[in-house]
Amino acid sequence: MSPVGIDKALRTAPPDRLVETLDAYLSATHGAKSSTVWLADYRTTTLAPTGIELLGTVDEQLASATRAFASQTSVLEGGDGQGMVRLHLPLSAWGERVGVLSVGLDPDRVPTERPRLQDLAESFAVALQAAYKRTDRYHMARRRKGRLTMAAEMQWDLLPARGYEQPGVKLAGQLEPAYAVGGDHFDWSVNGDWLTVTALNGMGTGLDAALLTTLAVNAMRNARRSIPAGQSSPGNLADQAVLAADAIFSQYGGARHLATLLLSLNMVTGELRLVDAGSPRMILVRNGQVQDMAPDPQLPLGMFGDTRYVEESVQLQSGDRLFIVSDGVHTAARPNEATYGERELSRAIRSTRLQPPAEAISSVMRSLRDFHAGAELVDDALIICLDWAPRADP
After folding, report:
1. CA 192 to chain centre
2. 20 to 30 A from 127, CA-CA: which of 17, 89, 145, 338?
3. Is residue 291 classed as helix, strand or coil in its secondary structure?
4. For 4-140, which CATH superfamily applies?
């Protein structure tokens, strides 16, 4: 079976009918007896089925699907007494974990169908990401744990994706409280050899914070996208900071401002350019050692008019990992106790050394929730994890 078949089927299907189109295709082409698409919620801690009715034990299927999602490898679940097995395949688009595809098959078909279905799952994940902007169906499936606030709705729609991966670089980020985040945000873009990442430590709460962040993100995107055609460099980060700062100051007159970190990584050489505009905290993990990175601090965006910024450059080493955390993480506090950043953050980061970025940020977030004794976070919390190593020669 050529993957072109499923690509054409998904391209010609209505965006809100991708799950049903996939189910029919699996039955006709792969002899599937059932299929289920599980989508990760905004917190990436829960999978919810969408579309086709589940057959068999839900808890058993969910446990196997969750293992496939966490490990990002296919998981084979034993039969249900009717001679059927289920193959659970992670759905991932360019490194962003979307969910899991579960397919019921006759056991003797598994060796042949497994590699084919893995290719199919990749095609479906890309189609699903494209469909998000064209239907509400998959957004609704992801929020079964609760309703998003208006501010959170704006922040998640503003986000390009929660992760990215290609040879040599892995990126993942998470916003909390996922269903009520206000101003913290991150943005990223890939252009040629450069990965540009922006981390914003929001000011204020709720809708006001989301509006401020939206203005800043779009101002920086406007500057980044104004690079002349054919120019591979990401442009001058200082210019991007200036444009965003001027836009914020013009709107708020200095009454509101935004602590922001602008990064641009050359994914081939490891050159890291940055502007620290009162930024979130940046932590380097190198050879198992955790240390704060301390760029020259500059003014937050929009604090004063006509502010100018200076770009710095540092050289990453192969295997370096960067964590970026907002003050909702490192200054999180409980009454009469040291802050989370003083007590637990380095320990939590050190414990993730063998985990990929997506799992690493989940581990740190779990540690932060444990610090809060399971209570909802009071302040917005942003965590980004970025791994770099030189690309292997082709």
Report:
1. 20
2. 145
3. strand
4. GAF domain (3.30.450.40)
Is the distance from CB of 175 to CB of 380 less than 8 angstroms?
yes
Question: Between the CA of residue 369 and those of 110, 233, 264, 281, 379, what are the distances in Å?
Answer: 40, 39, 30, 19, 12
The per-residue DSSP string of 71-125 comes to HTS-EEEPP-SSS-EEEEEEEEETTEEEEEEEEEE-GGGHHHHHHHHHHHHHHHH
Other CB atoms within a 10 A radius of the CB of residue 27 amount to 15
pLDDT digits (tens, 9 = 90+) for 70-116: 999 999 988 655 578 999 999 999 999 999 999 999 999 999 999 99
pLDDT per residue over 49-66, tens digit each?
886 555 556 777 899 999
pLDDT band with cut points at 50, 70 and 90 for residue 268:
very high
Q: Reply yes or no on domain 147-388 having CATH 1.10.3720.10.
A: no
Where do the domains of the chain lie? 4-140, 147-388
Pick from 175, 151, 177: nearest CA to 372: 177
Which one-letter amino acid corresponds to residue 127?
A: A
For residue 189, give the H/E element and its range: strand 185-191
- Output the pTM of the full model: 0.90
What mean pLDDT do residues 170-181 have? Answer: 93
Reference 149, options 203, 199, 210; nearest CA is: 210
- Please give the Cα distance from 373 to 178 (Å, whole number): 17
Sign of torsion over alpha carbons 158, 172, 195, 101: negative
Lowest mean pLDDT among 34-38, 52-56, 373-377: 52-56
